[in-house]
Amino acid sequence: MKNALILFVLYFFLGQTIHAQKTSFTSLTDALAHPNDVKVLDLSYQNLNTFPNAILDFQNLETLNLRGNEIASIPAEIYKLSSLKSLFLDNNNISTLPDRIGDLTNLEILTLSDNNLSALPSTFSNLNNLKFFSIAHNQFNSFPQTLCPLNSLEKVDLSNNTISSLPSQCSNSLFNLQYIYLANNNFSQFPIELTSSTSLIFIELDDNNISVLPDEISNMTQLKYIHLANNQLTTIPAIIKELQNLEYLYLNFNKIKTLPDELGDLNNLKFIDLSNNLIVTVPSALAYLQQCEEINLCYNKIFQMPDDFAHSPRLRKIGITNNTMVQVPASLSRYVIY
Description:
Strand order of the largest sheet: 1-2-3-4-5-6-7-8-9-10-11-12-13-14-15
Strand content: 5-15%
Structural class: mainly beta
């Protein structure tokens, strides 16, 4: 009797496990056999030329992955997938989105990278639960204003477009935005609209044409990561010392000639990349960064390093090759040199 009970319990839980596994499908044919069970459907990289309309019958669908296909359009009936939380449409041929996509109010993740989009429908502002959104590698020449009201957004990727500015409406919105990717666009100025953010911890603006960092950057006190490689910067403002949470600073491939002593006040900085600039002298203050483990100064015009670097508290690696120094100073002998 006891053994029979154990077998029954095992059978029950095994059945539950098997049933639970059937909520995730990688075949449309298999999913159609269990339409009410489908919560996750992954049809990525399956050479689909059109959006399979049969998907619209999966009323409990929460995650739909269609990336890596040849889909050119999304049907207006997409609104029927009212339970959808994650939608992956990267690497397709989509040039427009239906207005009814704004009815997917439970959507939290939407990725549309590597398509042919140049605009978003105004109904996007209805996606009040959207947390992560990507339109990298598309054809946007302006920041979509319809994103500004979305205060739930935490991460936005607009890299590899031709955007040159942010709309003023964004200055007093996007309150929860933590990560923004704007690399490889057409920014000639640092987007001042972002400096009012008190939530941003990561900003990527590599491969633009920014020549000046505004003093307002000091308002971005939560920043931990700044990526500004391959721009046109010639100086670093002293006000940068206000960014006391900053941990990683990338300023390589610019035109910086001098470094402010205030860099030494960044008490949480762990890594700084200043390679491929025009730096001649290094301030002693840089040697006393309390948390810094690595400094990259390669490919500059530095002819001498301060002896203070012999006393750096946490420094382990320092890049100084391809400068004008004849030999590595003895004060740097305890570090990994590259």
